[in-house]
Amino acid sequence: MTFGTAVILSGPSGVGKSTLISRVRRELPELEFSVSCTTRAPRPGEIDHVHYHFLSEEEFSSRLEQREFIEHAGVFARRYGTLRAEVMDRVRAGRDVILDIDVQGALQIREAARNDLQLAAVAEFVFVAPPSLEELERRLRGRGTESEEQIRLRLGQARKELSFWRRYDYLLINHDVEYTAVEMVGLIRAFRLKSSRQPEELFS
Ligand code: 5GP
């Protein structure tokens, strides 16, 4: 049995990560999505346990105390975290999983991987950037889901997040989501071909 890949995808809010993930999963239906926990309220159309596990502050704190998170962070005054089980159970069973998490969370996973060889072997870090900050603002406004205050907050945060792109192994610039999805599918297929992922006893 070979381990699956944990694709850690970050990029500023509004860059198109969710659309990208759904396009990629259409092409690679076996790629599973790591459902994060959050204390923010669901947006219209978001389903509990599908898009997020929507938790109260108390539930989040209790899971944190139980050390259930592989990483967690405060984003836009709300808490977000990835359950260790969402990722490790799948990759250990040979399945691929994609995480949509912010830069703070991705860097925590990188740090954790320094002392966890299993995690280091499966994690691949991919950053998605917009063609420009102006284009990002246009997309955030076009989405129409955030208040003016939230848009300003997200744009300020986007500038900070963009400065971390070099900490990732791969950079995708999302000019066109269909094209970027093709690039991402190519990356994920290449991850599966890594010689370090193949069973030791393959030709013995
Ligand atoms: P949104 O509220 O728009 O769904 O997500 C806001 C930000 O939180 C996005 O940048 C998203 O990548 C990030 N995020 C979502 N889930 C997690 C998580 O489990 N951990 C961390 N660190 N960030 C997350």
Summary keywords:
204 residues, binds guanosine-5'-monophosphate, single chain, 4-stranded mixed β-sheet, alpha/beta, 20% strand, 5-stranded parallel β-sheet
Main β sheet profile: 5 strands, parallel
What's the β-strand tally?
A: 9
Question: pLDDT below 50 for ≥5 consecutive residues: which ranges?
Answer: none
Helical segment count: 8
Bound molecules: guanosine-5'-monophosphate
Radius of gyration: 17 Å
Principal-axes geometry comes out as: globular
Helix content: 40-55%
Q: Roughly what is the average pLDDT, rounded to an integer?
A: 94
Distance between the termini: 15 Å
Helices and strands: which structural class? alpha/beta
Molecular structure report:
By secondary structure, the chain is of the alpha/beta class. 43% of the residues lie in helices and 20% in strands. It has eight helices and nine strands. A five-stranded parallel β-sheet has the order 2-7-1-8-9, sandwiched between helices. A hairpin with a 2-residue loop joins strand 5 and strand 6. Helix 1 packs across helix 8 and helix 6 runs antiparallel to helix 7. The model has no long low-confidence stretch (mean pLDDT 94). The chain binds guanosine-5'-monophosphate. The site of guanosine-5'-monophosphate (5GP) has 14 residues, from strand 5, strand 6 and helix 4.
